[in-house]
């Protein structure tokens, strides 16, 4: 009995992407994180001050677009995209603008983490997309928090 991982080639947006079995699982995890981020930014947008509301709106739109793209990716990898939950537990109460800013930074950290996993599990165009998404989440986290980390997506593993 072989322990070799299956490698399949799929077509995504006209380019071939070679992926191992772990890519589907990592893509599903990224999709779940994007569902949670879309929900979380609904809370952020309702609580953040007017000076940062357009930033929250922009991040919300970016996460919706990534969520939709990941649903297509999961289908291309032979899976059924995970559905969004009706609600998500927030990591802490968000009664005001300061808490909303902290929540936005935490959402981006979580998203960066799952994209880090997708980068490791994929190759080709999917890997490039995951790396781009990780970079975008890291930049948004820095904007919300005001500081960054040396290795976005890996901070919680240190």
Structure, described:
The protein is 62% helix and 8% strand. It is mainly alpha-helical. A two-stranded antiparallel ribbon has the order 1-2. Helix 3 (97-121) packs antiparallel against helix 4. The model is unreliable at 1-18 (pLDDT under 50).
State the separation between the terminal residues, measured CA to CA: 36 Å
Proportion of beta-strand residues = 5-15%
Order of adjacent strands in the largest pleated sheet: 1-2
Helix content: 55-70%
DSSP helical segment count: 4
* SSE order, one letter for each helix or strand: EEHHHH
**Tell me about the biggest sheet?**
2 strands, antiparallel
SSE-based structural type: mainly alpha
Shape by Cα distribution: globular
Key features?
disordered N terminus; 8% strand; mainly alpha; single chain; 158 residues; two-stranded antiparallel ribbon; 62% helix
Summarize the structure.
By secondary structure, the chain is mainly α.
């Amino acid at each position: 009995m072989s322990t070799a991982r299956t490698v399949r080639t799929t077509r995504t947006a006209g380019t071939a992407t070679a992926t191992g079995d772990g890519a589907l699982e990592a893509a599903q995890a990224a999709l779940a994180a994007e569902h949670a981020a879309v929900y979380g930014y609904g809370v952020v947008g309702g609580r953040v001050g007017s000076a940062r509301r357009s930033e929250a709106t922009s991040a919300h739109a970016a996460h919706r677009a990534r969520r939709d793209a990941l649903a297509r990716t999961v289908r291309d990898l032979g899976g059924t995209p995970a559905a969004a939950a009706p609600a998500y537990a927030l990591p802490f109460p968000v009664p005001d603008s300061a808490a909303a800013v902290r929540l936005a930074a935490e959402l981006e950290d979580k998203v960066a983490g799952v994209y880090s996993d997708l980068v490791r599990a994929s190759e080709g165009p999917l890997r490039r997309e995951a790396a781009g998404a990780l970079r975008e989440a890291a930049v948004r986290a820095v904007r919300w928090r005001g500081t960054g980390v040396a290795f976005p997506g890996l901070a919680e593993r240190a």
